[in-house]
Amino acid sequence: MNKPTRKMEWVVWGGLVLIIAAIGGAFAWSRLHVGDLPLPVLGQLSDFNLTNQNNEAVSLASLRGKVWVADIIFTRCPGPCAKMTRHLAELQS
Hints:
Layout: H1 6-32, E1 49-51, E2 57-59, H2 60-63, H3 81-92
Antiparallel strand pairs: 1-2
């Protein structure tokens, strides 16, 4: 078997370095441009007034600017409510 020439080794290593640099550059570029596009509006929520588990009033205005997830369940629901509650508890943790 022929021994690789020194020039061929430089070409292989140089190509490898270029590929790694390109991947790193693409990653950095994607991280810097994440916030450029606004999130799409999937729907608008009308104002509401609810009471949370601490007996405190919660409205759309009190949640504005915060990240939140809502789930309305029935305590006597025989179907998927218990599973949804477990998943939301995991999310909260």
